[in-house]
């Protein structure tokens, strides 16, 4: 789907996120009333388009290689405010340390 020029900030936000999802997945999601509504909620919550696009790429990288998770790379999952905030926080927190490099704690009395 082509990006259609618009002066509507929420529609443009939704369009950019959906374009990113479609580019990464090869799917053909469209901007809908629901995605514009979700975009408005994200904008009100001060979620930037830059952080959304980075999060979409982050979650796609995490989920697309896993067949049981790949279907979650869709607007209804990634644009839901509660999910978006959680996924952005996860992305910003950085990767989980491997078990081998994790700190260890001595037992009491050592």
Q: Strand percentage, roughly?
A: under 5%
Order of helices and strands: HHHHHH
3D shape:
globular
**What portion of residues is helical?**
55-70%
Instruction: Tell me the distance between the termini.
Output: 63 Å
Number of helices: 6
Mean pLDDT across every amino acid position: 89
- What's the number of extended β-strand segments? 0
What kind of oligomer do you see?
single chain
* Secondary structure category: mainly alpha
Low-confidence stretches: none
Main β-sheet, in a few words? none
Please compute the radius of gyration using only Cα atoms. 17 Å
Task: Explain what this protein looks like in three dimensions.
It contains 6 helices and no strands. With 110 residues, the protein is an all-alpha fold. It starts with 8 loop residues before the first helix and ends in a 17-residue tail after the last helix.
Mind sketching the topology for me?
Elements: H1 9-25, H2 33-44, H3 49-63, H4 67-70, H5 75-78, H6 81-93
Summarize the structure.
This protein is mainly alpha-helical and 110 residues long. The chain has helices at residues 9-25, 33-44, 49-63, 67-70, 75-78, 81-93.
Features:
6 helices, globular, mainly alpha, 110 residues
